[in-house]
Amino acid sequence: MLKGLALTPPVIGRISIGKVVERNGKRLPEKDDEFTITSQVQGRDGWIHHPLDEQLRKDKGAKLRSIPVRLLFDDPDLSLRASYTMFDRSTGRPLCVGNGETCKRATLSGMQSFPCPAPPSCPLAEGGSCKPYGRLHVRIDLEAEGAPGDELGSFVLRTTGFNSIRTLSARLRYLHALSRGLLSTLPLELRLRGKSTTLSHRTPIYYVDLTLRGEMTLAQAIGAARTAWEARKVAGVDQGALDEAARSGFALGEFEESEEDGVAVVEEFYPAEGEGQDSGGKPELLEKLRQKAGRNPSPISETAG
Which of 2, 20, 79, 210 has a 20 to 30 Å separation from 158 between CA atoms? Predict the structure, then answer.
């Protein structure tokens, strides 16, 4: 087993509520008011749509604002992984990952731990270099469309939005408690919701929610989940062992995001906001990292991560 390489759920596609567009010779992120399901392949015009994207739209050209899903795991912390993350904008490598209390940072002498004050209080986070970063892994429920699908393959929804991360975290914990831990068999649905705030100047802000299927009551959903869970147990499916394997896989790596995936993440969620702004791989930010790690004799590596 390779050390330092996190084993994350196999990904067969992406779910997003935005896209990257080219404007004035620059590739910039653009928010959207619907879900888009894509493959993991990019073409000249961006990510290629997954066949499910068209299949789940009831009418051609209709906006996709709900997706039937199931979770891979019973443990909510395995389905949704969230952290404060700083990427090297030029390479896509993670530089610093924290949870608001402690953070891990790559240095010349290896991985170091430091206090993590969270972006609002961290001098390294100036200019949006560090953001909350969440990854939700789900199975799109093809059973609802008459096909079993890949039961271990997941679609990943990545977000740096506080509203989405907070809402998804709360829903997962509430549903976990109400179902007595049967998250993996609950019939769920990703929903896109909108709200306006003072800061948005009455412009809708869209975020992701996770709910029960629209036609089901809580009692019906939990009853269906228990029936499905017991049937899988009789068939020999060991959900507890799967959760433990995933937990151990995450623990193998210091950082979950690979450099290969990090480039796309940086492009979509961590773009430079203007000319002259510090970039993750430039000397200005690296010097800040060195100063922050000043209590330790080993400075941050310019190629760390």
Answer: 2
